[in-house]
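Hi W., the FE2/S2 (inorganic) cluster complex you wanted:
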Amino acid sequence: MNTKVSIAGVKLKNPVMTASGTFGSGMEYAEMTDLNRLGAIVTKGVADKPWPGNPTPRVAEVYGGMLNAIGLQNPGVDVFIERDLAFLKDYDVPVIVNVCGHTVEEYCAVVERLNDAPVAMYEINVSCPNVKQGALAFGQDAKVLEETTKAIRAVAKKPVIMKLSPNVTSIKDMALAAEAGGADAVSLINTLIGMKIDIEKQTFVLANKTGGFSGPAVKPVALRMVYDVAQAVQIPVIGMGGIASGEDAIEFLLAGATAVSVGTMNFIDPQTTAKVTDGIEAYMKRHKVSDIKELIGAVH
Amino acid sequence: MKRKEKAEILSQEELAPGIWSLWLKSSMAAEARPGQFVGVYPKDGSRLLMRPISICDVDEEKTALRLVYRAGGNGTKEISSYKKGEKVDLLGVLGNGYDLSKMQGRKVILLGGGIGIPPMLYLAKELEYSGVHTNTVLGYANADLFLKADFDKVSDFVYVATMDGSVGTKGTVIDALNDGFIMADMLCACGPMPMLRAVKQYAQEQGMRAYISLEERMACGVGACLGCVTKTKEPDEHTHVNNTRICVEGPVFDASVVDI
Ligand SMILES: Cc1cc2nc3c(=O)[nH]c(=O)nc-3n(C[C@H](O)[C@H](O)[C@H](O)COP(=O)(O)OP(=O)(O)OC[C@H]3O[C@@H](n4cnc5c(N)ncnc54)[C@H](O)[C@@H]3O)c2cc1C
Ligand SMILES: Cc1cc2nc3c(=O)[nH]c(=O)nc-3n(C[C@H](O)[C@H](O)[C@H](O)COP(=O)(O)O)c2cc1C
Ligand code: FES
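Structure:
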C-alpha cells in the first residue's frame, strides 16, 4: 500500500501534516506523539522579528470548535533557526515553515534568512485574521496576492505554499491568483472570522473582539472550498479545517487535496495525527486502494 | 511525561452548593506536584477544550488525584454529573508547580480565595510533610467553608475571611492579612485576579517573596498554542517577548516577575 505523496518535489511518507500554530514547532508534542510518523511538520508562523501577539483572552470555546486571536506571537526567525530548527534536525520529517509579515519586505526577509536552513518548504500566511495591519490584506485582494506571491517566489530557494483565507468572496479566484504568481502549492483554509459575546458581562469574550474560528464545526465549509480550489488550479492543494479522523481526511483527499493538515484537534488529542494516518490506511485496505493517489480528487 | 489518559472516577461529591470534589484513579498521581493541574475533557463533542483544574490532593497509596472545582459553566456542570466507575479523559500533568525547596526553613502563609482554595491544600500537605510551618488564610463567600477541615489537619493555623462576614474576618483574605495577626516570610496565593494583585502589592510593601498561581483561558495546555500568556516584566526565555505561557512556565510565578 502506498501512502506517499509529493508536493512540488518534496516527498511526504504520508499526506498527514500538522496545521500551523497548533503544534508549536513539534517540541511541545514530541513526548506525546511520534513526530517521525508525520508526513510533514508545519511550524507556528514566524516573522523577521519577535512579535508580542494580542492581549488575553486569546482563545474561546464555541460549539464544536474554538476561536483564537493569538496575534502571531513568535520569537522571530533568528531564535526559530537556532532553537526550533535545531530541535527538528533530529527527526526524519520534512519541515514546512509558516511565514508571517506586515509587508512584502518582511515576508521576503524571513524567507531569505531561511533559504540555507534545513527547511523543505515555506507556507506563506497571507490569511491571518488576527493582526491589525497587513497579513489578511495580502490574502483578500487577488492582484495583491499575485504580486506578493511573485515577490516571495523570486527570493525563495524552496517551494512556496500560499495559505489562503476563507474570508473572501471567491477563494477560487485567490487560488488562481496565487498560482499565477508562481505558487508551488496552496493550502486552505485558514480560520474563519468569528465572534463570541459574554451575555452576562455584555462584553466580547476575546480581547481582540473577533477571532479565527476552527475545529470540527468548520469542516463542511473547508471541504467545499478545497473542492472548488482543486477544480480550478493545477498546483497541489493542501486541505485543512476541522479534520479529526481518517474519514475526515479521506473526504478532503476525495475533494482534491494532495495532503491534509490537522489543527485544533491536536489540542483535544495529541495523537490525532497518528489516528488520522491509521484511519487513512484502514480505509485504503477496506476499499482495496493500493496507491493513495487514486483517491485524490476522485469524488464524482 | 505529559500524556492524555483515561482515569476512573473513584468518587464524586458536592462539598458546598456548586463545589464538587472528584477523586480519580490515575497514574498521574505518582508524578504530580503541588500547584500543577490537569485538563479534564468533557465528553460532549460540542465542548472540545479541556477544563484546566488544579490538583487539590494526591493519595499515593491509591494512586489517585483529587480535584475540587466549581460547576459554573456547561463543561464543569457536565463533569459534575459523572458517577463513580465512569472514565474521563485527562491531559496531564500540566504546569510547573511550586518549588518546595525554596520554602525550606521559612514560615509560609498560604492564601486561597474562593475556587483558588483547592490547590493550596496539596501545597499545605506537602509542606507539612517536609517540616515547613504554614499559616493559612481562606477566603469564602459565606459560611460554606469547603475544605477548611482538611486544612485544619495540615496547617498550623487556619484563618477564615468571608465576604458576608458570617465567619472570621469580614471581607477578603487581604483584609484578614491586614488584620496583622499573621507573620511569615513568604506568601503563596491562588484566587481571583484582584486578590492576586493585592498579594503582589502586599509582598512588595513587606519585602516578602510571593508565589502566585495564575489563570487564563487555555486551548492546548502544553505550550503550543500561545493562548494562555501573562505579561512579564522581562522578555521571557521561550517566547522572547514580554508574554509568558501560563500552562508551561506557570501557573505558579514569582509575583515580582509578572506584570498583572
Ligand atoms: C491553571 C488553572 C487551574 C485551575 N484550577 C481550578 C480548580 O482547581 N478548580 C476550579 O473550580 N477551577 C479551576 N480553574 C478554572 C477552571 O478551569 C474554569 O472554571 C473552567 O475551565 C470553566 O469551565 P466551564 O465548563 O465551567 O465553563 P465554560 O463557560 O463552558 O467554559 C468555556 C471555555 O472557557 C474556559 N474557561 C472558562 N472560565 C475559565 C477560567 N476561569 N479559567 C480558565 N478557563 C476558563 C473553559 O476551560 C472552556 O474552554 C483553573 C484554571 C486554570 C487556568
Ligand atoms: C491557536 C491557533 C493558532 C494558529 N496559528 C496560525 C499561524 O500562526 N499561521 C497560520 O497560517 N495559521 C494558523 N492557524 C490556522 C490553522 O493552521 C488552520 O488553518 C485552521 O485552524 C483550520 O484547521 P483546524 O480546523 O484543523 O484547526 C492557527 C489556528 C489556531 C487554532
Ligand atoms: S494553553 Fe496553549 S500555550 Fe498555554
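The pocket of FE2/S2 (inorganic) cluster (ligand 3) is lined by residues B 218-221, 223-228, 245, 247 (CB under 6 Å).

W.
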